[in-house]
Amino acid sequence: MSADPFSDILKFTNAETLVTGGFTAGGQWAIRFPAPDKIKFFAVVKGHCRVAIDGEQELLHFKTGDVGLLAAKRSFVIASLPGVDPVDAMALFQSSGGKFAKLGDGGEFSYIGGHVLLDPVSGGLLADVLPPWIHIQAVSPQATAFRWLLDQLVHEQASNLPGSGLASAQLAQLLFIQILRAHLKSSSFLPAGWLRALGDQRIAPALRLMHTEPGRSWHLEELAKAAAMSRTTFAVRFKEVAGVPPLTYLLNWRIRLAERALHEGATPISELAQSLGYTSESAFSNAFKRVKGLAPKRYRDATQADGDFLFG
Q1: How many folded domains does the chain comprise?
Q2: Angstrom distance (rounded) from CA 67 to CA 64
Q3: DSSP per residue over the chain, as a string?
Q4: How far is it, in rounded angstroms, from Cα 67 to Cα 136?
Q5: Whole domain around residue 218: which residue ranges?
Q6: Same domain? 180 vs 215
């Protein structure tokens, strides 16, 4: 593992960001998008619009360079002005015959959007901690990189240059990371959990140690020392931001790693137990069963027999 817990979790969930299309518009217009079955992101490349998300009373005002992330399975309307009857997005894009559509003269507004794909087994680790929606404004201090990324995405989507598909995917991935980074900057407003913990600089050194060597027998005193706090202060601070005590966080991360290993391959359970710091296979099996309700072997058999088996 690395010394970067944020990268660890993105890799662990196999987060993959794809640009799926966009549209241009002019005059008065509105489009209703169906509730996404994946995390959806979108950006306003040119102009401004109003966004109405089902279940939210407030209309969001998006301007040039603003980026949104929708994690909730809710339909939404993007419009030039409130009160305009929306057209159905699926019908619009089907009639356009491609990924990009045009409303009116297309000269006043430009939008690009896509999805974030997550591993069906491990993706819940990320999806479950995201708020229903995130709005990052182009004027925010954390959004300085958005403008360049959006310009490059538009260029790659419009070009027929070799490798444009891969370049678009890489740029979209960077955009997703920037959205999460900007969201982490508001960590004081996040609920307790691992996402808030990643944004807390006081406990970051301890998190890095646990992610670098998850199989090491860490003691609370060592972790507190790394964070330059007393044992008691560290324990209180960690639980406040992460929602669980430090050694419980370590246990949960080990179990996540075990779940992935059991799902993906045939590593002997004794070998997996040793790599995660357990003194015996039985100690590992007991810990795994306490958290997951199944012994490791039964869990492996279940997940490999059913690709839709998700961990909670």
Answers
A1: 2
A2: 9
A3: --S-HHHHHHHHTT-EEEEEEEEEE-SS-EEEEPPPSSEEEEEEEES-EEEEETT--SPEEE-TT-EEEE-S---EEEESSTTPPPEEHHHHHHHHTSSEEEETT--SEEEEEEEEE--TTTTHHHHTTS-SEEEE-TTSGGGTTHHHHHHHHHHHHH---TTHHHHHHHHHHHHHHHHHHHHHTTGGGSPSSHHHHHT-TTTHHHHHHHHH-TTS---HHHHHHHTTS-HHHHHHHHHHHHSS-HHHHHHHHHHHHHHHHHHH----HHHHHHHTT-SSHHHHHHHHHHHHSS-HHHHHHHHHH-TT----
A4: 5
A5: 196-305
A6: no
pLDDT digits (tens, 9 = 90+) for 147-158: 888 888 888 887
Same domain for 157 and 72: yes
Instruction: Give me the percent of the chain exceeding a pLDDT of 70.
Output: 95
Q: Which residues contact 75 (CB under 8 A, 6 or more apart)?
A: 32, 33, 34, 35, 54
Q: Are 260 and 226 in contact (CB under 8 A)?
A: no
Q: What is the CATH number of the domain that holds 129?
A: 2.60.120
Cα first-last separation, the chain: 23
Copy the structure tokens of residue 100: 């990009």
The closest of 40, 178, 54, 183 to 118, measured between CA atoms, is 40
pLDDT tens digits for range 212-232: 999 999 999 999 999 999 999
* Token representation of residue 272: 């997996």
